[in-house]
Amino acid sequence: MIALSKPEDGVWVVTLDRPEKANSLTEAMLSELAEIAEAATEVRLFILTGSGKVFSAGADLDAARAGLATSPLWERLSVAIAELPGLTIAALNGTLAGGAMGMALACDLRIAVPTAKVFYPVMKHGFLPQPSDPKRLGALVGPARTKLILMAGQKISAQEALTFGLVDRIVAPEDLMQTALSLGADTLSARSEIATAINAMCR
Question: Closest Cα partner for 47 from 98, 9, 102, 6?
Answer without folding.
Answer: 6
